[in-house]
Amino acid sequence: MEKIMEKLIITAAISGAEVTKEHNPAVPYTIEECVNEAGLAYDAGAGIIHLHVREDDGMPTQDKGRFKAAIDAIKIRCPDVIIQPSTGGAVGMSNDERLQPLELNPEMATLDCGTLNFGGDEIFENTENTIKYFAERMNEKGIKPELEVFDKSMIDMALRLHKQGYIQSPMHFELVMGVNGGISGTLRDFIFLRNSIPADATYTVAGVGRFEFELAAAAIIDGGHVRVGFEDNIMISKGILAKSNGELVEKVVRLAGEFSREIATPGEARKILGLKK
Q: Residue range 243-258: average pLDDT?
């Protein structure tokens, strides 16, 4: 019997904490720029905006006030979109600094499930106690965690903490692939990670750089969900800079159309993910 696939949830990671205007001039820093990029992604079909915020000069910040300003402004432009703040922040931030966006009671937020060597001397640190602390804070507020995993060991950590009661079912994973220090973005490794999560879990795949659209196609075919955006990739095709996050989302929508996969509205995404708000 043919499997009936859920509609495709597209997440747009519009800025990240590392990519800059030197990489692509369209990377948003200001609130106005974030609203514009979120709006273009939303209009193209994104149901979720994965949000980092910057100061006007591009410096990453987890300041609650800055997040509130961005979220309020995006909600005016895209009233029903799901806004998913990052609790990753930037390398070197304290746990409580990273958790500031939770005070705004978002529907979802990211929960990183392990430590990663980002390159050089940069270590993105997430100890077991950090992960438990973040999960407890999200549980207290009824915030759905998106379990960000950069390798198989991080899936194992999430499953272990699920058994201990820190992470609740149904789980939603984000398979971040192709990051320096993490698992590669090959189809082999996608299948490996995909087959390592529970049958009742949902997942989104985020392919970094040249892996973005190859992995998007794999997730579309498999019944998973897709993240694209300047945080992960600044190119629309080899050697050609993307003009906007919207252009990246449009490419995923075209891919989905080739495989007859319908795009989820924000309301449909809420039902698929079991969001409580």
A: 98
Cα gap 225→217, rounded to integer Å = 10
Output the pLDDT for position 89. Answer: 82
Structural domains of the chain, with CATH: 10-273 (3.20.20.70)
Strand 225-228 with 202-207, pairing: parallel
Q: How many residues does the chain have?
A: 277
Average pLDDT on 122-150 reads 96
Please give the Cα distance from 114 to 160 (Å, whole number): 12
DSSP 196-257: TS-TT-EEEEEE-GGGHHHHHHHHHHHT-EEEESTTT--EEETTEE-S-HHHHHHHHHHHHH
Q: Report d(CA 254, CA 240) in Å as an integer.
A: 18
Beta bridge partners of 226: 10, 205
Residues 226/10, Cβ–Cβ less than 8 Å:
yes
DSSP 178-191: S-TTS----HHHHH
